[in-house]
Amino acid sequence: MQISIRQWHELDLREIARLTYAAKEAHEQTSEQETIERIVKWLHEQFAELPRLAVLARSGEQLVGWVMLVVQNPTKVEINPWYLGGHPLVAPDQDHQEVGSLLLREAIAWARDEGFEVIELCVARDLAADPQVYESFSDWYASFGFAVREESVGFFRRLSPLDLLDLVVPAGIQVRPVTDVDQDELYRCYHDTLSAGQSRFFFDQSETERRAYFDTFGQTYGRHDKTSLALIQDGQIVGFSYTIPFGSEYLHLDWMGIHPDARRRGLGRFLLRLIMGRAAGEGFQTMGLSCDAANTRAIALYRSLGWQQEDAELKYAVKL
Hints:
The protein is of the alpha+beta class. The protein has helices at residues 13-24, 32-45, 96-113, 131-142, 183-195, 200-204, 207-221, 267-281, 296-304, and strands spanning 2-7, 52-59, 62-73, 76-79, 89-90, 118-125, 147-158, 173-177, 229-233, 236-246, 250-258, 286-292, 308-319. The radius of gyration is 21 Å and the shape is globular. The model has no long low-confidence stretch (mean pLDDT 91).
């Protein structure tokens, strides 16, 4: 087995797409060729503005496994985000753990040699599946130094004309795009808000990693300015949101928070309804978000406004 790391421009994306199709055992309405072409398009376009590499496993001339490495910011590398689903992608006729282990070791060694603080991966969790499936995966990842960094649940909401109804802004509150406020002040609100919460992901980060994540978020994932907002009261930022558009129909709410000194006044409900209304007005059909599974207060808010739980996710990380 030969393991190598290649820059993105060196790759044969169609070869990688064929293996990805086979490894994920895709069964879709479209034909195999159409699905492979869609994977090629995704591989070409997603994270195109970020440094990307691939760790490849070959048996002779045959590609039998691979992982994508995306440099998210100066401190962090992510393995196989989103569509690729976290786990190493291995040909069905190969031993997944044997090939996957070689890929993960090479990815971790590369990230360590390059001076990154952390390397992480996220895997979807089927809520109906046997918990022992995830225990075995967690044990396998633990053998490389991965620990669970976050357990999150995902929600989605179909937008409707009712979301366009006028919303009264609470007295004394101003609404501004996050791009129009001082970023250090916004970070302090973000930091204080998450420090007062239960975000396992936030507490697992070093302060350097937190700030790098915050400072580069807009460049890493993109931003929808009309729904990425700051709430201002008496000159202080007391709430914030950050949203990411995926195409013209789906908007992801990635951050939302109310400073602990401004809670229990309905500002969280107001901000979420404002985001939903503006998103509907911009033509988005659906919204999604994820939050820490332990954040019962936020989950109750989402459900009260018609959001439905869709999935769950485990995030693993190795501190380098």
